[in-house]
Amino acid sequence: MTNPNNREAQSPHPMQTTNQPIVIYDTTLRDGAQTEGLSMSLEDKIRIAHKLDSLGVAFIEGGWPGANPKDGEFFQRLQAEPLVNAEVVAFCSTRRPGTKANEDPMLVPIVAAGTKWITLFGKSWDLHVTEGLRTSLDENLAMITDTIAYLRGRDRHVIYDAEHWFDGYKANPDYALQTLGAAIDAGAAWLVLCDTNGGTLPDEVAEITDAVIAHFGDRLTLSNLGNQPGRENQSNQVRLGIHTHNDAGVAVANALAAIKHGAMMVQGTINGYGERCGNANLCTVIPNLQLKMGYPCLAETQLQQLTDVSRQVSELVNLAPYEHAPFVGLSAFAHKGGIHVSAVKRNPKTYEHIEPETIGNRRRIVISEQSGLSNVLSKAETFGIKLDKNDATCRHILQQMKELEQNGYQFEAAEASFELLMRQAMGDRPKFFALSGFRVDSDSDPDGNVHVVAIIKVLVKGEEKLIASEGNGPISALDAALRKALVEFYPAIAQFHLTDYKVRILNSNDGTNAKTRVLIESSNGEERWTTLGVSSNIIAASYQALVEGLEYGLILAQAKEPIAAGLSQ
Amino acid sequence: MTNPNNREAQSPHPMQTTNQPIVIYDTTLRDGAQTEGLSMSLEDKIRIAHKLDSLGVAFIEGGWPGANPKDGEFFQRLQAEPLVNAEVVAFCSTRRPGTKANEDPMLVPIVAAGTKWITLFGKSWDLHVTEGLRTSLDENLAMITDTIAYLRGRDRHVIYDAEHWFDGYKANPDYALQTLGAAIDAGAAWLVLCDTNGGTLPDEVAEITDAVIAHFGDRLTLSNLGNQPGRENQSNQVRLGIHTHNDAGVAVANALAAIKHGAMMVQGTINGYGERCGNANLCTVIPNLQLKMGYPCLAETQLQQLTDVSRQVSELVNLAPYEHAPFVGLSAFAHKGGIHVSAVKRNPKTYEHIEPETIGNRRRIVISEQSGLSNVLSKAETFGIKLDKNDATCRHILQQMKELEQNGYQFEAAEASFELLMRQAMGDRPKFFALSGFRVDSDSDPDGNVHVVAIIKVLVKGEEKLIASEGNGPISALDAALRKALVEFYPAIAQFHLTDYKVRILNSNDGTNAKTRVLIESSNGEERWTTLGVSSNIIAASYQALVEGLEYGLILAQAKEPIAAGLSQ
Lengths: 569, 569
What we know:
The structure is a homodimer. Chain A is α/β, with parallel strands linked by helices. Helix content of chain A is 37%, strand content 19%. The first copy, chain A, folds into three domains: 20-298, TIM Barrel (Alpha-Beta Barrel); 334-425, no CATH class; 434-560, Double Stranded RNA Binding Domain (2-Layer Sandwich), CATH 3.30.160. The first copy, chain A, contains 18 helices and 16 strands. In chain A, the strands form four sheets. In chain A, strands 1-2-3-4-5-6-7-8 form an eight-stranded parallel beta barrel, surrounded by eight helices. In chain A, strands 11-12-13 form a three-stranded antiparallel β-sheet, with helices on one face. A three-stranded antiparallel β-sheet of chain A has the order 14-15-16. In chain A, helix 1 runs antiparallel to helix 12 (306-316) and helix 8 (202-216) runs parallel beside helix 9 (251-260). The model of chain A is unreliable at 1-16, 226-233 and 563-569 (pLDDT under 50). At the A-B interface, helix 4, helix 9, helix 10, strand 9 and helix 13 of A face helix 4, helix 9, helix 10, strand 9 and helix 13 of B.
């Protein structure tokens, strides 16, 4: 069988040690789906599973078959489009109290999902047995034994998630250890210590992990997994895993502590999605383990995909990426202060804890209110614009930028607009067309159907055009009108399309009178660029960003092929 | 002098131990200001300083006087509006290489700021001395000694921030320790170990903190601070502090590790603001120290302000609050899954690691796609609506909610709209008015000035009204038209105003054809409520949320005083 963590493929790494490889278990599709505000379609789940597979995680927890139609269908679909390396895992609880596993209808769809591996969660904390399940402590042990034996009898490998492990151990260590013992005896391959409520601190995790290892002695396997990471349970080896939540803000530190003390599997989610404050963020755990602690997890080329996977998953689940996320965030290697910028340009080690490229991120020099001249110069350099620091133009740009930022402009995320501003100051901004106003009428009938018409007037290459266009909304109508007016003069426009549209209300306390900042991302199929507009009128702000988006796209086209861009006149 | 941490005021706490009190040092106004996307006016800084003062932090780092006009003015302003308990601190670097402290103009505005305490940062890492400052290792030691002596000679107390401490110690422990020794000899009251690049892991922080304590022996004070928390340096006592960044996702765990190993001050920011991935989040560090580790930090009543302070600061700096933040986030005690909801209602300990009230947060039962009947019932209960779980209406509501959520509706943040939906299903939604369509025309002249007119037609109490109104933008024009039409029939409307307006683009990949979800928060001066609208047309979505906002406000008014609400007919 293939090795899901591709350890063979790893090239030597400066921190490579004799540490055991760690098995990465992703639960974005199940525990991550509990995030407030997150929703995934079946299609989203399939796409995320394939991305995780190519990233190189060992296990992908797909959902609880039978809990809702979507989770059941997911496993069906994956049989038609199987994963290349990763094992997909079905998730469920121990059987209900007072029945038998082979009589519990809950387990029927679990087995029917057809996965080789099943993750089963059971109660470790006496409080949850008596108050949650309202059954006896002995019956809970029987539920663990019976359910695992039932699944083992159907040739399934079992990962046992010991829910509320740390709270349970603190409340009643003897009983908590009995639940793990029951899981070992019944044939579980992994015991995963779960900090379900997320309130445990790293030193407690370390201590309690030590206590588990001491208690079970050689019934647990702590040796290097070699090329068979315990994913087949032929040899009756039982290993420890860790599953943490971030309610005390230390989910990552807790996971690292457990690994250091002997756990060999880490469960977590992409971007730390999960109920309440989320699960351990795999995008943080993996680089810490691999780059800082010397535990191999992914191949080097897979690790380089981490930033992309983080952003793609956040797009698929439709949550804005968290810009300040460690390692993979847009700001993770962004330098704003003038001193930092000049130092980091001399030697990146001075202000960067790792090389951003190792996890597929990149350094950014941020243009902002606090920018010094060195930031502007550095930005100009990346745009390929020649600017001298003793030049008055340079100070003029800085001045103008600061004034605009006072009025709500923010160029950090809109580099194309900033480049246009620089070109304007240098007299190097091409004039592709001139606009004279717009009009947008939105008309709603009593049933709520809205009809929108936009009209623009544009002067292009000596011709004045008055163009009307319809659209779903005022912005799409304006966008359609602009393209319609310009495409015959600039055929490159036919390739342009909008890829993202973001609205931010500034001083939102002012209600609908507040200023609006609009960011529009455009693409020509190869490159992407972002422009912005600011106005108290959302339509005017969007229009500004739309127009600059077209203009910037034409500059890119012109750089490639002056004629195609229509500048042959 | 007053005790900034108000330890005397603390009432007994279940976890109270003999642990030393920890001094809280806030740098939101200085290091936090480095956050990408964050900007603060002078007025914002003053307001935040007073909020931090009332929260009970010991030190508030206000900025670097002289670095920009805003920071200088801040210290002037605070002399006119002084803080009650906290000490405000000016921040600066050691003097420049090759000069004398009393000849370095950088230090003039620092002393002129008039604070009793000054935080001075200096280099610990040989790489930064030679590559960053481009000076000799000896000159760096002289810069530390000379600058501290200069400030001590002007009666200032000095907190020495050892920049890049952990990286410096790892690269050249002897030299790093010499820099701290120089700071002690020159009269610093605090040595703060800074993980400036944020790449250190908790076990390293613990080890290196131990090494510092072992090296300096009784030149450091580790005893309980009693009622004089070392803020005056009369006795030549020198104590350790910790300053961490979150680049490896473990800033909080690092701060806790240093405290456990002997540090007595923690530096951090509200909401973890700070460059790149941010600083240690005081909203996470403080409750962990006080509630879980037994180190007194704030009085109990001050700790209860923590959630409010977190949200108020995020409003002032105009960044959306991070909903999944530990302890203080909107989602931190939100329960979504059906099983969790029924268990947590029986015994909160089952799924909550602390009582949310201790830090001023509250439990929330979330209405969402995954909601079971128990969530709907629990929500109805908080609305004061009587609903029986065996009632067909209840299932109908659940069904309808799920369908709407498929179409982009999300009731989690729009409880007023959800209550209207429930009332509708139960035949208990008053019909205050009937609308028949709207029209909005936006007209821009060539200079970009936009003129907006909205027209609505409404049937209210048997009268048909056709009303036109102008506005800054299409939404404010519609809002004005609705009020104008209705206020004579429902005078309560005169008190209503919009307090927040949020736009979220769903499936933003579809560009301007994507669906838009609008959330509008309204207020009557006493209560606040949030409504939502969804449409591919941003104006239609906003209109829906506006109309529901008025409707819900009228229900509230009617409950108080049927006649004033205009329902006397």
